[in-house]
Amino acid sequence: MSIKFRFLISTTLILLLTCFFSWLSMRVLAEDIIVSWIERYAEKQVLYDKERTLSPLIQQVNLSEEFANLDSLKAWAKQPDNAQLKQKALADTEAFRGRFADDSYFIGLKGNGHYYYSDGVLPPSGDLYRYTLDSAKASDEWFYQIMAAELDMHLNVNPDVELGVIKLWSDVLIRDGDAILGVVGTGLDLSVFLAQMVEKQDIYSAIVFTNYEGSIQLHKKQELINYATITKQAQDKKLIFSLLDDAESSERLQNAFVLAKSHPNQVETTAVHLNGVRQLASVVYIPEIDWFQTNFIDINNFLPLTEFSGLLLIFFVSLVCALIVFYGLLTLIVTKPLEELSLSIQSLGEKRYRAPVLSCFAGPEIKRLVHQYETISRSLLEHQSSLEAKVEERTEALNRLAKLDPLTELYNRRGFELFMAQYMQHWQTTQQPFGLINVDVNRFKAINDQYGHVAGDWVLQEVAKHLLSAVGNKGEVARWGGDEFLILLKQANAHTLAQLTSQLLDHENAPVLAIDEHNVRVTFSVGSALIQENDTIDDVFHRADSAMYAVKFATK
């Protein structure tokens, strides 16, 4: 065998191996980019879903905890057979009931085992007492296990056969110090939640909600949901880890759960195999409800292998033909175009596109390969741009939800504090004076009590419009909390600040609202403060607040 022939064979093998590893590097680099995009997309998607859809669920849990801390309820739970304490407690709990989304609640007392339930409709007996709990009955086992485990808060998913819906029950302990007095809670209809949040998922993702042990609480396949988790034996529970294809994937997901638990609201990702497909699992722990949200994203949908296999075959065939026919021009025909392609691949890793520059000596096969590569590269970059746009859009939506009050669409407390911090920096630079006005709606609780919370919410919206109209483009208005509003009056002096304060205090100028065929005049208690040298934000807040309360108490 001649040296020239051996050189030709060696060169051919080296070039073939080089091409193979170049393709492999391109494949790994592209996959790393895709996985990085998926991780960023999953993180924003999970946090966005939490704000958009889990907020009502978290709110119900918070209300259940507030309900369990009613003083009259605790007093009755200590003496469950005291009729007078019972009457007072039930009056307070009925007044509270309208705040629950399901307009219902239950009370289980440890002292006498009595179970009470109210949904606004009194039973024929006229008493909210329904039955006496029995630790020997399987149907009542949940009550005693929650107390035995000292679970201050427990979420329990159960189907309501009579209503044909799936309900989530938030169970909260009634405590007096370390003593457990009973269990209270409310139900939330999850049927709409399942339809919107779980079944209508993104094209690449599947969402599962579990508790810490991995017991499935919400899934698009209702047969996989663990109803009444606390009363089930371990072998009867349907765990998310059992959905995975192999033990290694299960172990990886369990480790992700541990990391997510130690870093609440932070997304942890790991690669797993589910339904015979390699997927990326993103896990986030939601401490408000003690649940985990897991998203499974199909990586292969982002990077189909079939597209690369065809290109590889064409690449190899074209190279062999080029080596046989154009051995003398091997460098100009193959090596140079491959160098250009390598540079273009490197630029793709830097998220920019560099078109390969081919000489007139490049063979048609190489040109076709480069053209196909250019098509794939542009597709990948367009896909990246689309994903980044979605991430930016959802980040903007999260920022908006965090800064605005959903009822009045004014700044909320957090949003106004951020705005004030920026404005204080502006004031320290320009020294242009400004004022802060604290506005409190008089007798708002009486309006709520007499006309209901829906009317009260409408009154707050009308008050917001009235304040915006009064302030105009001279400042910013925020809902500080409840029926309290704050106004930042820009470039104000003592005269303009006093003028606006007087306008808001003028009862003749106060808005008159028609509620249930009654004309209700809504008046305000108003206090104001002008920025002074060396003031902090808290200093101005405190003076305006003190001035408002001075007016409020003076008018009583």
UniProtKB/TrEMBL annotation:
SMART domains on file: GGDEF
Q: Please give the start and end residues of each transmembrane region.
A: 310-334
What is a single molecular function from GO for this protein? diguanylate cyclase activity
GGDEF domain sequence ranges: 432-556
InterPro entries associated with the record? DGC-Regulatory_Protein, GGDEF_dom, Nucleotide_cyclase, Rev_trsase/Diguanyl_cyclase
The source's domain of life comes to Bacteria
| Enzyme's top EC category | transferase
What Enzyme Commission number(s) apply to this enzyme? 2.7.7.65
Q: Per UniProt, which keywords does this protein have?
A: Membrane, Nucleotidyltransferase, Transferase, Transmembrane, Transmembrane helix
> Know the name of this protein?
Diguanylate cyclase
Q: Which organism is it from?
A: Marinomonas vulgaris
Its taxonomic placement starts with: Bacteria, Pseudomonadati, Pseudomonadota, Gammaproteobacteria, Oceanospirillales
